[in-house]
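Quick question, first post here. What does this chain look like in 3D?
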Amino acid sequence: MTYTVDHDNKKPTRAAFGDEIVALGKQNPDIYVIDVDIAKSCKTDAFAKELPQQHVNVGIAEQNAAGLAAGLATTGKIPFVATYAVFGSLRMGEQIRQSICYPKLNVKIACSHGGLTPGNDGGSHQAIEDMGVLRTFPGMTVVMPADYHSTRKLTRAAAEWQGPLFLRFTRDAMPSIYGPDEEFEIGKAKVLREGDDLAIIANGDTVRLALEAAEQLNASGINPRVVDMHTIKPLDRDEVMRSMQCQGRIITVEDHTVLGGLGGAVSEVVAEEGGAVVRRIGVQDQFGQSATYDELLELNGITTANIIATAHELLTLTPAHGSVGVKPQGR
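> Answer (accepted):
Ran it through. Tokens below.
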């Protein structure tokens, strides 16, 4: 199968969550949505309207939402707490750790506005640390889909998954990559393109950039492997190992700080196994600013052009064959 980026068919992944959670709620009365007074932004307003008996709005009280969700989970319900990623990871962090992860409760934290997509809302609303923070919590699963259809499928998979789980969505519209019949499994990466010169591992809204870069690299005679690592915990170690076989050259791309997210998770496997050089493209060690989403990506080097430049830099290196090098790669 050939995967391409369809810029003519764009939707925010938060919209996919909103559509799928209504379908799930109608099928299973144990599915609940806990809102924190931003249902319109998180696209759970349709759920509230159609399934009011399965919906609770706690107001602007994220920590209370986490506690209520934990309580519902103890009764056999499957609660989804819907909020912005910066609040669903940091403001709720202690409650997620103590009240959800520690007792291993079946709570889903479903967050819109992940990464830099809040754009003009500024650094206060741009969640650049969320996945890295939450993947350190014992028992937590961390997932970020790439487009509308993958979000619907992974939201459904999340409802069937047992245990704490964090789902991260975009505010901005993302081009389509997958069709409606594509299948997804939490913890199993999707290989979008096979290649042997180097590997590009991306997740969420950066998968499109990885595919675009791979197409341009291929046109110049370079054959890259492209992996959608939608689940960064549990990480698909097997696909990381296969990517290491691409001449020991790996680029990770993420809309998240390079510290502790996808690039960190991949680098941990490489450091343990040996045999590859990793370049991490992502948000540098800085807060976001008030600017457009595309401007913020450019500011941090999260671009097709930088992926291509990084690939050419890696290709000048002798294949690793047992050596390991890991460093962040900005503009």
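The CA atoms of residues 86 and 124 lie 8 Å apart.
The first strand starts at residue 6 and ends at 12.
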